[in-house]
Specification:
The chain is 57% helix and 13% strand. The chain has 212 residues and is α/β, with parallel strands linked by helices. A five-stranded parallel sheet has the order 2-3-1-4-5, sandwiched between helices. The structure holds adenosine-5'-triphosphate and the ligand Cc1cn([C@H]2C[C@H](O)[C@@H](COP(=O)(O)O)O2)c(=O)[nH]c1=O. The site of adenosine-5'-triphosphate has 15 residues, from helix 1, helix 6 and helix 8. Phosphorylation of dTMP to form dTDP in both de novo and salvage pathways of dTTP synthesis.
């Protein structure tokens, strides 16, 4: 029987370095000879990427909070069935830039939607499936936003107020405390080399546990 792959998610606020460090993590997996796919949410399949574009593109018509929540889960349903579940079952690791904890942080913490509404959709779309490990890149909101601004034009979420992102960060830190066995919290406010030194230790121990 094929050994199930690990489902590893990378979370954090805007501009904290998720994409940069996801590439670092997958380099470590490659070096260890571990089969993996690297993907992101919202997105990860052609259809889910189209939903991503609906979610991220700024427009005049305001998007209702419920519409936003349902779009996020619609993209996730597609991503899970077409990409994540088959990969894990085939023994591949799935390294995913954001997953449902982002929904609890942004639509729950940021927009104020109830945990129980999100939990109902989580059960409907995912069944029992949850990430095995979650790396939270944590930095003060101002640090992440200044990195995001330097990158160029801001998307629909990045145009939110600082208070929105403070709530998002608070929700992530709360989840990290609540799910301490699954979470690895990394201080992402320091220079990249120091971030990757912390990350290297964490990924090596996760690999070791899987190979044992
Ligand atoms: N520790 C760091 N110190 C300084 N700059 C960094 C650090 N980590 C990432 N950066 C830079 O910050 C910018 C944002 O990084 P990146 O795109 O990886 O963040 P992200 O979390 O994926 O952003 P988003 O949430 O918008 O997708 C990039 O220009 C990247 O080079
Ligand atoms: C999965 C997910 C994402 N979001 C938001 C968070 C970000 O602002 C964007 C994705 O852009 P990034 O460049 O990949 O960071 O989408 C959300 O609000 N809810 C979610 O579940």
């Amino acid at each position: 029987m094929t050994k199930r792959g690990v489902f590893l998610t990378v979370e954090g606020g805007e501009g904290v370095g998720k994409s940069t460090n996801l590439a670092f993590l997958t380099e470590r997996l490659k070096a260890a000879g571990i089969p993996f796919i690297s993907t992101r949410e919202p997105g990860g399949t052609e259809l889910a990427e189209q939903i991503r574009s609906l979610l991220l593109t700024p427009r005049e018509e305001a998007m209702s909070e419920l519409t936003e929540l349902l779009l996020v889960f619609a993209a996730r349903a597609q991503h899970l069935e077409a990409c994540i579940k088959p990969a894990i079952e085939q023994g591949q690791w799935v390294v995913c830039d954001r997953f449902t904890d982002a929904t609890y942080a942004y639509q729950g913490g940021g927009r104020g939607l109830s945990q129980s509404t999100i939990a109902q959709l989580e059960s409907l779309v995912q069944g029992e499936l949850r990430p095995d490990y979650t790396i939270l890149l944590d930095a003060p909101v101002a640090v992440g936003m200044s990195r995001a601004r330097e990158r160029g034009e801001l998307d629909r979420f990045e145009r939110e107020q600082q208070s929105f992102f403070e709530k998002v960060r608070g929700a992530y830190l709360h989840m990290a405390a609540e799910h301490a066995k699954r979470y690895r919290v990394i201080d992402a406010s320091v220079e990249l080399e120091a971030v990757q030194q912390q990350l290297g230790g964490e990924i090596d121990s996760i690999i070791e546990a899987w190979l044992a």
